[in-house]
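Because showing beats explaining, we think one record worth quoting, sequence and backbone structure tokens together, and here it is:
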Amino acid sequence: MLAALLTTLLFATSAICGYRTARQIGGVEANFWRIALATIFLTIWANLFGTGFDGAPEWFMLSGLFGIGLGDSAYFQALPRLGSRRTVLLTQCLTAPFAALIEWLWLGSKLNLPEIFCIAVILTGVAIALAPGDHLKIEPRQLKIGVLACVFSAIGAAIGAVLIRKAFAVAHAAGSFPDAGTTGYQRVLGGILIPTIALLVFKWRSAHAHGGIFQEKTWQVSREKWRRIWPWVLANALAGQTLGVTCMQWALEQTNAAIVTAIIALTPIFLLPMTRIIEGEKIGVRSLVGALIAVGGVIGLTIFR
């Protein structure tokens, strides 16, 4: 439970940094560079302090392909369109039921009624806290794309979470017990494929649209852009794919995916004070009530586990 809560705090930090970077350099580029940096950090850890490719690397890489490759790529397309609050709300609320459905269909994993009730309480609290009270000032087409991206992100995250459970089961059956940093390294290796392809396509199209990649003006804008944004990219990589995903691996090794993803759904609640401090966003009574309901659900889930 502690690992899942720590994951939630780190993911909230990552969401703040991710929104900043996506607004400045676009979702495709922001997602690629944070995963690339995380790959470097986790490679160093796994090969110096961890066990490298020990365990079930093929399963962990497959998990990364869906959870990081598909899920995070879609997530970063939703961020600049819907904003951090709505993106996190939709993604986190949809991931838990998708994970439960996949585990039931594939692994036969079941939840008892009190656990299902507590998960529903958590997600209800999150929805109450962050459901927008005013009319959405988003262009309809962008709204549809953003919501669809959130659905794909949630599906990818749910499949990735269930595959992590499968990967740990395979590794343990073979007598291997890889640490969370090592499994995070294996996942990110599978996850970097889709963002890399997306970035190459994006750069190729951008170069043709602006007269070629070697135009001096293009590189000047890029240098100025990165001078402002690199601390946020670094913080995003550390809080998200490096430390955040490592903690999530730890949590999923101990608890089934539906419960872990439900606790991680508290990320929007953790975001409330952070957005108040960093972005000056006001916190209303409804947000506080929703936070209390969600926290109550986590306490109940802890008791029934």
Q: What stands out?
A: The two ends are 10 Å apart (CA to CA). The mean pLDDT is 83. The CA atoms of residues 121 and 297 lie 5 Å apart. The longest helix spans residues 216-254.
